[in-house]
Design goal:
about 30% helix; Rossmann fold; disordered N terminus; Dimethylsulfoxide Reductase, domain 2; alpha/beta; seven-stranded mixed beta sheet; 13 helices
Length: about 425
């Protein structure tokens, strides 16, 4: 029993929020019979997420097969039979923690599954750029203590990550200047808060990133404009410049934009200090990718095939596989809340997720198992958006639901002999 559970009067307890990739750990949660209240922040994303976890609804959640309630063991056996007879399963969503990812990898190897997170396209903007040309990134702590110029490329992160400025140390006596570089073409204009300077570029984000890289390198660029050239000069004069970008809001072929950002960083590092700060990888995507990489040597969008490990960052895109009918079974994992929802369709599926997914698991050929959420009903670990920092999560209360790791291990043990 946790401190929150043992008191009838709401008390505050330290908490790391698992609901966005910043993994803010300066919050507290006060809990009581009526639910939880966030303290130390007014983050709307965290407040909305906490409101989705009703203790009574969680404790009464049951596994389902074809919409009918069943014991957990029956659901595990049904899931194992479905995966055991599949010729090419797809593992998607992947909303789990380190323990869940470690249990998922041997199941993927046994079944030959292709694994791609719900935010796979966004994740691979940065991964493909790093695979091709390398990257130099930083941590939130480094930005907080050392950055004197932060350039947000393309979009304003505060809309999706409300604690962004606070995590970067802006407004806490530091000297960091924050600039939003936003093109006039192809993107909806953002409205950053007061104190954030906006540099508008007449063109799209591909042009803006490429021309900024060229200006920083000292090349004459026709059409760059005075504002872009002035920003390049400020970057060259900064002691520690940071270029932040949101992977999920980059357009198609966003790896080209990330490559231009990485070129800018590489040029600046010849004389001063600079780094990129990718923002993304939430809902377990970065965590599962990190675990699969250390276990296999390859990132997601890989599979254990008869001829060995295969990594296909384009061909193994989940959306393409589903659209082409290239997979015949789906395992969807989403333990952090009501999103991401499994794709529509009649594909036989197994859903391990928040109890609210029960309403969408009524179709024939669907196995649903409600699972605990790391940081709410169970402890766990997640990788933060800066990738090198592993954050521990403490449970707010034991909701009685099994963890993703527990369910996956049981499914693996229940697979028919020879399943591959």
């Amino acid at each position: 029993m946790t401190a929150l559970e043992s008191s009838s009067v709401p008390v505050a307890a330290a908490w790391t929020c698992p609901f966005c990739p910043l993994l803010c750990d300066r919050f507290a949660v006060a809990g009581g019979p009526e639910g939880w209240a966030l303290q130390g922040s007014d983050c709307p994303r965290a407040r909305a997420a906490l409101a989705r976890f009703d203790a009574l609804a969680l404790s009464s959640a049951q596994p389902l097969i074809d919409g009918a309630a069943c014991p957990l063991e029956a659901a595990v056996d049904a899931a194992a039979r479905l995966l055991g007879t599949s010729r090419q399963p797809l593992f998607g969503g992947l909303g789990t923690d380190v323990a869940g990812a470690r249990a998922l990898y041997p199941l993927a190897c046994r079944t030959g599954a292709i694994c791609d997170p719900a935010g796979g396209a966004a994740l691979f903007h940065g991964l493909r750029a790093m695979q091709d040309r390398g990257a130099f990134t930083t941590t939130l702590a480094e930005v907080h203590t050392r950055a004197d110029l932060i350039v947000c490329v393309g979009t304003w992160p505060g809309a999706r990550y409300p604690e962004f400025l606070r995590r970067c140390g802006v407004g806490e006596g530091g000297q960091a200047q924050v600039v939003l570089l936003q093109p006039t073409t192809g993107m909806v204009p953002d409205a950053p808060p007061a104190g954030v300077e906006t540099v508008r570029f007449d063109g799209d984000l591909f042009d803006a990133a490429a021309m900024l890289a060229a200006c920083v390198a000292g090349r004459a660029v026709v059409g760059a404009g005075g504002l872009l050239a002035a920003l390049a000069e400020r970057l060259r004069g900064a002691r520690y410049a940071v270029l932040a970008y949101e992977s999920a809001r980059l357009p198609a072929q966003g790896a080209l934009i990330v490559e231009a950002i990485n070129r800018t960083v590489a040029t600046l590092n010849q004389r001063s200090r600079a780094a990129a700060l990718p923002l993304g990888g939430g809902d377990g995507a970065s965590t599962v990718n990190a675990v699969f990489t250390w276990l296999s040597g390859l990132p997601l969008r890989s599979r254990a095939a008869p001829m060995g490990l295969e990594h296909e960052p384009l061909r193994f895109d989940a959306q393409h596989l589903l659209a082409e009918g290239a997979v015949d079974a789906l395992l969807w994992i989403a333990s952090f809340g009501t999103e991401p929802a499994p794709p529509a369709g009649a594909l036989p599926r197994i859903v391990l997720g928040h109890p609210s997914f029960a309403g969408a698991a009524q179709l024939r050929g669907t196995v649903f198992i409600p699972v605990a959420t790391p940081g709410i009903g169970t402890a766990g670990h997640l990788f933060r958006t800066d990738s090198s920092v592993l954050m521990p999560l403490r449970a707010l209360r034991d909701d009685g639901l099994p963890t993703v790791a527990e369910v996956l291990r049981r499914i693996t043990l229940a697979l028919p002999e020879g399943a591959a």
